[in-house]
Amino acid sequence: MRTMKILSIITKGLVATVSLAVLAVTAGGWWTYRTATDNLATDDVIVPDAQQPSANGSPLPLRREPRDTTILLVGLDSRTDDQGRPLPKDQLAQLQAGNATGEQNTDTMIVIHVPADPTKKAWGMSLPRDSYVDIAGGFGRHKLNSAYARAKVSAANKLRGQGKDAATVNREATTEGRRNLIATVNNLTGLRVDHYAEINLLGFSEITNSVGGVPVCLNAPVHDLYSGADFPAGQQTLQGVDALKFVRQRHGLTNGDLDRVRRQQAFLAGLANRMFSAGTLTDPTRITGLVNALTKTVVLDKGWDLLSFAQQLGGLSAGNIQFETIPTGRINLSTPSDGSAVEVNPDQVRQFVQGLLDPPVPPARGSRETPNAKKIETQEKVQKIASVEPINAGAIPCVD
Amino acid sequence: MLTSRRDGDSGTGTVDQRSAPVATTRLPLIPGWLAVLGPGAVAIGGLMAGGLFFPWSIVVGCVLAAVFAERAAFFAVAVQPPLITAIAVAGGVFVGGQPLLSGAAQLAETFPYLGVTIVAVLVVLGVRWFATARLEKRALSAV
After folding, report:
1. Domain A61-360+372-399 sits in which CATH superfamily?
2. Which of A51, A68, A304, A347 is exposed most, by the fewest CB atoms within 10 A?
3. Residue A334 pLDDT > 70, yes or no?
């Protein structure tokens, strides 16, 4: 009788302990999730469509159904951290950031499209920074990488005129700059950007560290004093400052910035390969590390449910991700006030995007003789100037 | 308290044995197994329904169990909310084929509801416990 009682007490104690432990784990998970979400630098940059009802009134489901997601990934040459504080000198020197001319330019712009259906291809599409396009907000035709800075400067002047303090002016003008860039990209591509991610030099370097380096491959050895890139040919794993040099080198490459775009695509392909092959996105501890790096260094739009997005990514495989560049014309188009720019035909870009969204039925015998072969042919011809063929993340692509 | 009830039951005979539960609750009590399996089943239903149904199924199932459970099941009812949550989510991952990350996220997101549930369950059980004790004392003194 007495042993029964003792046994019962022990059992109850054990059960209560397990219950408490589960509760503690849940609380810990919730706390991590919350801090990650709270520490994330966000900005209200996605302007809802006027025609669409803003939000459906039905009770908020905990987790939205996955749908196609279009993200604008922006690399900013800024020398500040994500909270807008200037970086210390030693860090700048380490990054080989160089002098700070044009640091408000968005020098890397990649539209990433992740389909809701994991069997469909996800793609990244680079928009060369020198693309000569219509800038939204009535700024006229200029280089794409100035869309952000132009709107920011104009908004800052207006806000300063209203007598706002410096911090407010900077914050609101930056939001305006981001919105203008998004609007410009929407106009150019015909897509609707759902989410925005902005990263600067330091952030990029930290993220590559958090995933333990990114595999890349070079066709030939490079030695460039401007970016500090000094790499042998062949496959190698880069992280931190070296990774930064790899994606920043432009001098000494045949097509200058367009070749740098290829570098960036190859790098992202390597990153995707690393994440999906190593199961980074399905491993909660790795996710935590990545989220920590991200919260420190990127600016995202408000209201991006990253967990849902991570899950959506988790359904992808590296072989199903592909990187391309928008079709471009002449790469030395002379312009009235912006020097030499890259010629871009918006109609061609939209057609190209449509082709990516609804890929033509896979050709049966390896030929591209589809009904609209003529269209594709012209596209390809133009595309070849910029890049030889799409970079697929299934393997580590070797680039110049 | 437990002993005092026993004393009361055994000491006052059949009349009190019948009147005590009626006086204490006036509620139709459910047996211990139902107080555990019931919320479990509700939680599984909520998990299958998805979205906010899951955390609310935990809240509703466990609080109802606390309201209606017979006194012998109080301990089980008090400790069950986290266990039911964990078992349901784990079942969703290992049996239902849900991605692990999704399960972890679900567990983390349920925490606020789970906290509310536990507090509510403990309050209900506490109120019932003391109310029973008081009523018994009154019944005892009446005799």
Report:
1. LCP protein (3.40.630.190)
2. A51
3. yes
